[in-house]
């Protein structure tokens, strides 16, 4: 199934999605990688407010190439980064900030999948490296936070998107995790191949 | 006429632009073939997206992937080429300029002070230069930007020599299986064997510069490359790790002599975007840019 969703996405709409569905997301998508996750959780732990809210929005594992043209930020290339790195704190992030979608590439593990199930979030797989396709669907940069401190790849870029996608749902709220299923098969294949080596 | 120094700088900027915005024809051919041969809709749509993205990046002259990598240059410097020790400084200036002009993503991060903003590391190791001294009066430059995602899945193991070739094959298969979906497959796999812990990794990276489908001149090694390519594809990681479509396009080996006590193996993996671009510059400033190495 194909879904065209708008932020803020309601939890009931997220819970309708299933692994294998394609999603196009319009509205607000905010980039956040390793450093931004750490900083956001640190501030949250101290009871401080973040400069931007994630609720019902997309969190994009992406370190874009941006260029300032005539005083405005222009998105040059903005494909996803490897999400697995964020697996060490994504569950806490989902619990604290309640985004509707985690967007990235490569898939994520069981901890994240459990948080998705519990708090109503899905993982949207955007084709890795497809940076120009992604940039084409970002209509503008509404704000940027923590640029000075974290640098261009790691800061929070608040992006306005129009039909951002296609994103393949690989973690849904129903205990399915497509990339983990593939991983298990690969490990079985590996054992067989190594067994037969000469 | 422009000064030679300026010509080198302009050429290096151009190589960084070409390598990050336009993929080699032979890699694109493999991606197209993969798309045709992939039956599953999940894998096929990933390959379609990749191909659309490559086309769009080429037309707009924009980086095909936002991760324009850590920059390195593979250099062959002729005996009679007039610019020598100044070359590194020129290539660093070119990297700085390409960061602004292409643009490239600033990817040189100081562990204490953060991103330098210009792809130049504070301690002089980034960008990295592999310099070989050769006969003649030409300078050959290959720009090799390599992304972090596929670099993160590289693997090194100092095997016990007793495990032999079978042990090498086993380690390569384990390394690619562990890479899984993380480094943006379909992959190209470079394997360096022997030398030492540093040399085998360098050889693995160097092996990635070989054209798709080119086999090692040693028939024994060529046979291992063919066997491993087949077995890696039997892992069935698939395009983007979704279990459909090819896992790898090619496997290349580079082998050095090993220490009697060591069998070092380096596995260097490239994402689908196997990026590099080459130029030669003669001492009178004539430039030949060759996209397909």
Topology of this protein?
The complex is a heterodimer of chains A (198) and B (293).
Chain A: E1 2-6, H1 11-16, E2 22-31, H2 34-45, E3 58-60, E4 65-69, E5 72-77, H3 90-97, E6 101-104, H4 110-119, E7 122-125, H5 131-136, E8 138-145, H6 147-150, E9 156-171, H7 178-195
Parallel strand pairs in A: 1-2, 2-3, 3-6, 6-7
Antiparallel strand pairs in A: 2-9, 4-5, 7-9, 8-9
Helix pairs in contact in A: 2-3, 3-4
Chain B: H1 4-21, H2 25-37, H3 41-60, E1 70-78, H4 87-101, E2 109-110, E3 114-115, E4 128-134, E5 138-146, H5 148-151, E6 155-159, H6 164-179, E7 187-193, H7 197-207, H8 219-234, E8 248-255, E9 263-270, E10 277-282, E11 287-290
Parallel strand pairs in B: 1-4, 7-8
Antiparallel strand pairs in B: 1-5, 2-3, 5-10, 6-9, 7-9, 10-11
What does this structure look like?
The complex is a heterodimer of chains A (198) and B (293). Helix content of chain A is 32%, strand content 31%. Chain A is an alpha/beta fold and 198 residues long. Chain A has one domain (2-195): fumarase. Chain A has a 5-stranded mixed barrel with strand order 2-3-6-7-9. Chain A has a two-stranded antiparallel sheet with strand order 4-5. In chain A, a hairpin with a 2-residue loop joins strand 4 and strand 5. In chain A, helix 2 packs across helix 3 (90-97) and helix 3 runs parallel beside helix 4 (110-119). Chain A is globular. With 293 residues, chain B is of the alpha+beta class. Chain B has 2 domains: 4-20 and 64-147 and 275-290, 2-Layer Sandwich (60s Ribosomal Protein L30, Chain: A), CATH 3.30.1330; 149-270, no CATH class. In chain B, 39% of the residues lie in helices and 23% in strands. Chain B is built from 8 helices and 11 strands. Chain B has helices at residues 4-21, 25-37, 41-60, 87-101, 148-151, 164-179, 197-207, 219-234; strands spanning 70-78, 109-110, 114-115, 128-134, 138-146, 155-159, 187-193, 248-255, 263-270, 277-282, 287-290. A 5-stranded mixed beta sheet of chain B has the order 4-1-5-10-11. In chain B, strands 6-9-7-8 form a 4-stranded mixed beta sheet. In chain B, a hairpin with a 4-residue loop joins strand 10 and strand 11. In chain B, helix 2 (25-37) runs antiparallel to helix 3. Chain B is globular, with a radius of gyration of 19 Å. At the A-B interface, helix 5, strand 9 and helix 7 of A face helix 3, strand 3 and helix 6 of B.
């Amino acid at each position: 199934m194909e879904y065209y969703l708008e932020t803020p996405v309601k939890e009931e709409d997220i819970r309708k999605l299933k692994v294998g569905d394609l999603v196009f997301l319009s509205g607000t998508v905010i980039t956040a990688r390793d450093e931004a996750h750490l900083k956001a959780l640190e501030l949250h732990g101290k009871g401080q407010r973040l400069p931007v809210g994630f609720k019902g929005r997309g969190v994009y594992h992406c370190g874009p190439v941006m260029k300032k043209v005539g005083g405005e930020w222009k998105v040059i290339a903005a494909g996803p980064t490897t999400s697995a790195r964020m697996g060490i704190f994504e569950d806490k992030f989902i619990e604290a900030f309640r985004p509707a979608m985690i967007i990235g590439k490569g898939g994520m593990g069981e901890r994240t999948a459990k948080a998705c199930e519990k708090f109503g979030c899905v993982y949207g797989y955007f084709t890795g490296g497809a940076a120009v396709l992604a940039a084409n669907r970002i209509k503008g940069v509404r704000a940027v936070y923590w640029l000075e401190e974290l640098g261009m790849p790691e800061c929070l870029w608040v992006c306005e998107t129009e039909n951002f996608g296609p994103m393949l749902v690989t973690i849904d709220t129903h205990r399915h995790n497509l990339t983990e299923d593939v991983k298990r098969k690969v490990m079985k294949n590996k054992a067989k191949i190594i067994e037969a080596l000469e | 006429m422009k000064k030679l120094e300026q010509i080198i700088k302009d050429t290096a900027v151009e190589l960084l632009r070409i390598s990050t915005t336009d993929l080699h024809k032979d890699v694109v051919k493999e991606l197209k073939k993969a798309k045709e041969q992939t039956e599953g809709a999940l894998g096929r749509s990933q390959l379609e997206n990749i191909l659309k993205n490559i086309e769009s990046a080429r037309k707009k002259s924009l980086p095909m992937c936002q991760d324009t990598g850590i920059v390195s240059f593979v250099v062959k410097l002729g005996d009679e080429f007039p610019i020598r020790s100044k070359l590194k400084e020129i290539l660093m200036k070119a990297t700085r300029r390409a960061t602004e002009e292409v643009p490239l993503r600033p990817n040189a991060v100081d562990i204490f002070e953060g991103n330098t903003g210009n792809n130049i590391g504070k301690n002089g190791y980034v960008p990295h230069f592999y310099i070989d001294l050769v006969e003649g009066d030409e300078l050959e430059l290959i720009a090799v930007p390599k992304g972090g995602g596929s670099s993160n899945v590289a693997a090194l193991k100092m095997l016990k020599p007793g495990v032999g070739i079978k042990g090498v094959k086993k380690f390569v298969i384990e390394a690619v299986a562990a890479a899984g979906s993380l480094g943006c497959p379909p992959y190209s796999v470079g394997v360096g064997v022997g030398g030492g812990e540093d040399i085998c990794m360098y050889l693995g990276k160097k092996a990635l510069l070989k054209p798709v489908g080119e086999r090692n001149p040693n028939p024994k090694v060529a046979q291992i490359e063919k066997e491993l390519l087949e077995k890696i594809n039997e892992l069935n990681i698939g395009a983007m790790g979704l279990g459909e479509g090819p896992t790898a396009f090619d496997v290349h080996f580079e082998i050095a002599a090993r220490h009697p006590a060591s069998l070092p193996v380096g596995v260097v993996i490239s994402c689908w975007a196997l990026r590099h671009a080459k130029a030669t510059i003669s001492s009178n400033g004539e430039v030949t840019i060759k996209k397909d190495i």
